[in-house]
């Protein structure tokens, strides 16, 4: 018995050392396989899911084929604050990043991004970046919409047409969920609550906080929770815990393709966009510049919009898309007519009388309301 | 008798001889202190310095802002209440289950231990989704209640009840195991003696077990309480719209407001409140909870110290009160004693249900054909298993996590083992400060520690390397390895070591022939806890993984965050299968060894 115990302990130690060396070896080979190319590599965050697949198909795979540069997909829905502290510490986790407007402003304030080298771009591509223009240090990546969505299994033929309908539990019975306002502009919850209370889209900014929270107070009895990830609203609709939710249009389309009984409307959809930017101190900055120039060309942009229903940032890509596909995209004329574009200039501006941005003030007001 | 006295004389002489030699046993503390100071204190202090920074130079502005913020205090109050509630539930259930475990046959214990460790086999995210499927309206519980005829089931999720259920499921093993390790060592003879003298079973239990287990109960209560403070994911998924806890508040401060200084300030305040709470609780709870003997000695000392201070009247009243309390206690205990079987049984059923039901849901999901998590699944298939075993990234992460967690655990057991020796056998005076320092990695919210560590090591290229992950995991494993080994060492008679030394054994021989065999169970359970602390972690990995070294829990976390699918469920089932196979293998090997031994002895005798 003594013998067997001793061997057991020995075995544990031996196995763990073995595993450790195996793991170290594994780590080495994975790093090794990433760097044998003479052209080097570029590290990008992989947003995963359908978006990650679309980016890989439209941008990263063709880029690898064309240039021989390895695109290393770093797993990660990243936390902007973690990335920022990495840049400040001189060790950015990625070379190139797509980030929302509020995050972009923070990176700018902290001098954490590099200017874009437009000399690498093909003739005329920069002029086609619209409706939002390319700036010196960032380019819009794609457009997405936050749309009112619902479970057709629960509501049948009844279709919502506005955020006011979202609040109308009598007409559209069932529980609700929204993105947390702690995300600031990210979840569009402030705009949604204001419009549900009857604020006209042109009068949204500056946000009337009192009205927003009064509106949310009305919804609260029917609000199950705030969703925490982009995948959660669809999961809550499928699981039957809620009947109506706000969700990103790509998530709804993805669920519909998989046969999940959900629907959404473009009316009062809220248009958002991300930006591509290159991090200060990036180890593969030169390759990141090349990747940026490649991604913004019309053809990869059209391939991207064909892979996932998010709008291309290069307007020339619409010429390469079928009319049916274009109709599914947030910025196609029929859809964008009834949409509201988020005003990032307002969100990132300093709130009057403080040294904080409007978004920071909004988050603090939200925390105070939500913890009541 | 003569043997005893000669041993007495013998060790006495040895001690006298040892005193002439300088005592170098404190040297074993050096690696422990070095690791804790370099890898824990320094990163924390760099962050602490941050919390005093605001615009220009030193300022208390961050503290003023947080202390005057009602949001902060509301989150704090809610957190403390939830932490206290889950601690109470975990400890009560854990005590019942641990006690019942010790009364079971040895073989059954191994199987039940797997049940207890089940929560560690899968990501807390998918467990939370499983709880939603179980508790939500139209879920398992509601459907079961409908069968019995309950039409309006209570709301069990998206509120504080859901949060509590999720938290208790995760922390119950942490409460159960320390209590179990102590109870299983208790000699039952005094209980039987007390019963033979006429004490009812429960009274006998109370007077024998309570003194012996009170320190373990306190330790596991502290463990659970502190762990709850750092919880983020479970409250976020199972709580309602207004149920944010302090960890969420810190995260919002850090991630959404991108205000690391403010986050550090909240963390420092949390730390101060927790330390204060512990000081107060231990001062007031320790005497009343610990050994009955100290109570009586304290009572005996009191009249001697202050003679005729209050007169006889209050003393008499106090005496009456105490008698009344004792009588009430006895009737209560009697009732408990009579109901002990149902209580223990209910405890186990409730505990096992809490631990296992979400895992059953997860296991069923892993065989689902759907892309979303619908329960029960409409169609079944093994396609997600195929998906997992065909995916190099997932397999790579699995082996990476196993390797990193076991390496970190081995290192922390070695350093922690030596440290525990120095702590128990070394000089008296620094004991308390060192013990507090060792417990600190548990108290500091992991997010804060990870941030400090990350900022410190990122410029040196450690992010995304195995070393960069192993180092913080060693630190997180130390509280477990040190405290468990130290507890075992305290119970070990130091005369054994002296005897060996007097017979000419060097330090190494003492270590090999006396300490290691005696401490083996403690070292192994220290290894298990350190391993699990690293294997189950998401927070440190978020900072330290980088693009190349993605650990398994982190991959699970991100996968289900981005796309809710049964893939994470598959990982749980694979790990669970591996764990079960290991347990089974142990039994098979033990059986084989016994069979061979029997065969050999027969051969020898014939």
What does this structure look like?
The complex is a heterodimer of chains A (372) and B (606). Chain A has 372 residues and is α/β, with parallel strands linked by helices. Chain A is built from 17 helices and twelve strands. Chain A folds into two domains: 163 residues, Periplasmic binding protein-like II (D-Maltodextrin-Binding Protein, domain 2, 3-Layer(aba) Sandwich); 158 residues, Periplasmic binding protein-like II (D-Maltodextrin-Binding Protein, domain 2). In chain A, strand 1, helix 2 and strand 2 form a beta-alpha-beta unit. Chain B folds into two domains: 214 residues, MetI-like (MetI-like fold), CATH 1.10.3720.10; 279 residues, MetI-like (MetI-like fold, Orthogonal Bundle), CATH 1.10.3720.10. In chain B, helix 4 crosses helix 8 and helix 4 runs antiparallel to helix 10. The N terminus of chain B is likely disordered. At the A-B interface, helix 1, helix 2, strand 2, helix 3 and strand 7 of A face helix 4, helix 6, helix 12, helix 18 and helix 20 of B.
Structural class based on helices, strands and sheet pairing of chain A: alpha/beta
Instruction: Describe the global form of chain A.
Output: globular
**In percent terms, what proportion of residues of chain B is strand?**
under 5%
What's the CATH H-level homologous superfamily of the largest domain in chain A? Periplasmic binding protein-like II
Poorly predicted residue ranges of chain A: 1-36
Give the name of the CATH superfamily of the largest domain in chain B.
Answer: MetI-like
Order of helices and strands of chain A: HEHEHEHEHEHHEHHEHEHEEHHEHHEHH
The CATH class label of the largest domain in chain A is Alpha Beta
> Under the CATH scheme, which architecture of the largest domain in chain B would be assigned?
Orthogonal Bundle
Largest sheet of chain A: 10 strands, mixed
């Amino acid at each position: 018995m003594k013998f067997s115990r001793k061997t057991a302990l020995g075995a544990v130690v031996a196995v763990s050392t073995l595993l450790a060396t195996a793991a170290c070896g594994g780590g080495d080979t994975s790093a090794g396989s990433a760097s044998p190319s003479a052209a080097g590599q570029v590290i990008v965050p992989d947003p995963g899911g359908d978006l990650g697949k679309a980016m890989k198909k439209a941008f990263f795979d063709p880029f690898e084929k064309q240039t021989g540069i390895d695109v290393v997909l770093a797993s990660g829905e990243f936390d902007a604050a973690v990335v920022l502290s990495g840049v400040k510490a001189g060790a950015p986790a990625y070379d190139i990043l797509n980030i929302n407007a509020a995050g972009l402003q923070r990176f700018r304030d902290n001098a954490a991004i590099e200017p874009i080298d437009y000399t690498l771009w093909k003739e005329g591509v920069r002029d086609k970046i619209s409706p939002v223009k390319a700036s010196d240090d960032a380019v819009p990546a794609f457009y997405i919409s936050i749309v009112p969505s619902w479970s057709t299994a629960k509501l049948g033929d009844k279709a919502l047409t506005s955020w006011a309908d979202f609040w109308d539990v009598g007409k559209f019975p069932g529980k609700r969920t929204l993105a947390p306002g702690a995300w600031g502009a990210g979840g569009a919850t402030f705009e949604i609550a204001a419009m549900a209370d009857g604020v006209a889209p042109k009068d949204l900014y500056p946000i009337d906080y009192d009205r927003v929270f009064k509106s949310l107070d009305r919804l609260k009895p029917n609000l199950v929770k705030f969703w925490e990830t982009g995948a959660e609203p669809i999961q809550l609709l499928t699981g039957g815990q809620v009947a109506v939710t706000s969700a990103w249009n790509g998530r709804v389309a993805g669920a519909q393709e998989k046969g999940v009984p959900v629907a959404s409307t473009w009316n009062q959809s809220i248009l958002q966009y991300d930006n591509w930017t290159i991090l200060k101190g990036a180890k593969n900055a030169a390759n990141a510049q090349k990747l940026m120039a490649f991604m913004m060309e019309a053809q990869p942009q059209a391939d991207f919009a064909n892979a996932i229903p998010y709008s291309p940032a290069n307007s020339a890509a619409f010429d390469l898309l079928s009319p049916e596909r274009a109709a599914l995209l947030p910025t196609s004329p029929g859809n964008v007519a009834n949409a509201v574009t988020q005003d990032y200039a307002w969100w990132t501006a300093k709130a009057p009388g403080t040294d904080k941005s409007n978004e920071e003030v909004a988050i603090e007001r939200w925390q105070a309301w939500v913890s009541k | 008798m003569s043997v005893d006295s000669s041993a007495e004389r013998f060790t006495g002489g040895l001690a006298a001889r040892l005193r002439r030699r300088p005592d170098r046993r404190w040297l074993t503390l050096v690696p422990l202190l070095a690791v804790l100071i370099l890898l824990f204190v320094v990163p924390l202090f760099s962050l602490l310095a941050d919390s005093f920074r605001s615009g220009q130079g030193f300022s208390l502005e961050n503290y003023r802002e947080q202390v005057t913020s009602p949001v902060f205090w509301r989150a704090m109050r809610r957190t403390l209440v939830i932490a206290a509630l889950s601690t109470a539930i975990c400890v009560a259930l854990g005590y019942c289950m641990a006690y019942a475990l010790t009364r079971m046959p040895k073989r059954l214990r191994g199987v039940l231990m797997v049940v207890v460790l089940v929560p560690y086999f899968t990501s807390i995210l998918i467990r939370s989704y499983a709880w939603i499927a179980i508790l939500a309206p139209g879920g398992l519980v509601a459907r079961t209640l409908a069968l019995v005829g309950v039409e309006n089931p209570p709301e069990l999720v998206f509120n504080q009840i859901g949060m509590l259920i999720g938290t208790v499921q995760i922390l119950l093993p942490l409460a159960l195991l320390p209590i179990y390790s102590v109870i299983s060592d208790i000699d039952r003879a005094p209980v039987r003696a007390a019963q033979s003298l006429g004490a009812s079973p429960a009274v006998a239990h109370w007077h024998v077990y309570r003194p012996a287990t009170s320190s373990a109960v306190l330790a596991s209560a502290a463990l659970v309480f502190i762990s709850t403070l750092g919880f983020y994911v479970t409250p976020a998924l199972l709580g309602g719209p207004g149920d944010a806890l302090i960890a969420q508040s810190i995260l919002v401060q850090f991630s959404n407001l991108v205000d690391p200084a403010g986050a550090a300030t909240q963390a420092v305040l949390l730390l101060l409140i927790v330390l204060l709470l512990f000081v107060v609780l231990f001062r007031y709870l320790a005497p009343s909870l610990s050994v009955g003997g100290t109570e009586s000695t304290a009572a005996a000392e009191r009249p001697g110290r202050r003679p005729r201070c209050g007169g006889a009247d209050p003393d008499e009243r106090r005496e009456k009160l105490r008698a009344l309390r004792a009588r009430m206690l006895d009737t209560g205990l009697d009732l408990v004693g009579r109901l002990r079987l149902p209580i223990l049984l209910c405890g186990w059923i409730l505990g096992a249900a809490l631990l296992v039901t979400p895992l059953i849901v997860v296991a069923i999901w892993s065989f689902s054909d759907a892309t979303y998590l619908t329960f029960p699944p409409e169609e079944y298939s093994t396609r997600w298993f195929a998906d997992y075993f065909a995916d190099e990234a997932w397999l790579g992460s699995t082996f990476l996590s196993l390797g990193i967690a076991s390496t970190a655990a081995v290192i922390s057991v070695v350093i922690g083992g030596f440290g525990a020796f120095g702590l128990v056998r070394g000089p008296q005076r620094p004991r308390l400060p060192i013990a507090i320092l060792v417990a600190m990695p548990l108290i500091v919210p992991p997010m804060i520690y990870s941030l400090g560590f990350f900022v410190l090591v990122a410029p040196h290229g450690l992010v995304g390397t195995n070393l960069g992950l192993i180092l913080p995991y060693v630190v997180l494993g130390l509280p477990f390895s040190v405290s468990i080994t130290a507890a075992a060492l305290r119970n070990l008679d130091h005369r054994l070591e002296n005897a060996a030394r007097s017979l000419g054994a060097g330090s190494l021989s003492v270590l090999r022939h006396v300490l290691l065999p005696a401490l083996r169970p403690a070292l192994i359970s220290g290894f298990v806890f350190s391993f699990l602390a690293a294997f189950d972690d998401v927070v440190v990995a978020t900072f330290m993984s980088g693009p190349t070294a993605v650990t398994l829990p982190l991959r699970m976390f991100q996968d289900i965050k981005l796309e809710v699918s049964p893939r994470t469920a598959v990982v749980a089932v694979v790990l669970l299968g591996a764990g079960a196979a290991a347990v089974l293998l142990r039994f098979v090997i033990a059986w084989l060894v016994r069979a061979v031994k029997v065969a050999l002895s027969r051969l020898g005798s014939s």
